[in-house]
Amino acid sequence: MHRPSYQDPALEIRDVTAGYVEGSPVFAGLSLSFGKPGLVHLRGGNGTGKSTLVELCSGYLLPWQGTVRVGGLDASSPAARAGRRICRTQPALYPDMTVRDHIVFTSRCRGADTEAGLDRAVRLGLEPWLDHAAKALSTGNTRKLWYVVCTLGSFGCAVLDEPFNGIDQEGAEKIAEELSLWGADRLVLLISHMVPAALAVTDDFVLDRTPRSGESWH
Ligand SMILES: Nc1ncnc2c1ncn2[C@@H]1O[C@H](COP(=O)(O)OP(=O)(O)OP(=O)(O)O)[C@@H](O)[C@H]1O
């Protein structure tokens, strides 16, 4: 069986038509292909389909037509999860679970190094909050925890939707450092209106309209 690996950063969206309301697709014949590592910055106005693209990559939104493959695997298959990370805009944490326990629990689920996860949280300024419940965190610290939890362990492809929202400058710089580092040997698809100067973007494109059937971006 083909398993996604750290060395398999491919994301391929082929001829995808998808949306939420029958007869009114958000994408019609969308094709995007990234076959090698890099930090790709995806921009676009409100409502152009950025979050819809995230959901297609996550495998939760199934295309009406076409295919979405992550690490060579169908995005909706359970096997695709291991090599892919998705960080949505809306944090989904356990209100009564501490910051530390979020990281320990998720690291165990991912087979990841717990200490490495805690170190990342500390670097982002969460040390004073490690033993506090998630519900006690400020908006920015909630988002820092969410970002860490969503990106624990090894992966070949990560898709992040507005990870800098609500994050202070120091935290944004730390996140930019991590994303730049990952971009050297993994595929990182970053959706963000704001981009810190330190970010080492290797590719950039704008999602500014619904593409016509058969149109390809990359
Ligand atoms: N759950 C849903 N049900 C119906 N329509 C939806 C749903 N989610 C998004 N849409 C529609 O799909 C289109 C694309 O929305 P999407 O959220 O993907 O855009 P976006 O580029 O992420 O926007 P923003 O920058 O505002 O976050 C919009 O017309 C939106 O109204």
TrEMBL record:
What is a single molecular function from GO for this protein?
ATP binding
Q: Which InterPro entries match?
A: ABC_transporter-like_ATP-bd, ABC_Transporter_VariousFunc, P-loop_NTPase
| UniProt keyword terms in alphabetical order | ATP-binding, Nucleotide-binding, Transport
The cross-references to PROSITE patterns, in alphabetical order and at most eight, read: ABC_TRANSPORTER_2
* Domain ABC transporter span(s) in chain numbering: 11-216
Q: Which PANTHER family match?
A: ABC TRANSPORTER ATP-BINDING PROTEIN ALBC-RELATED
Protein name listed in UniProt: ATP-binding cassette domain-containing protein
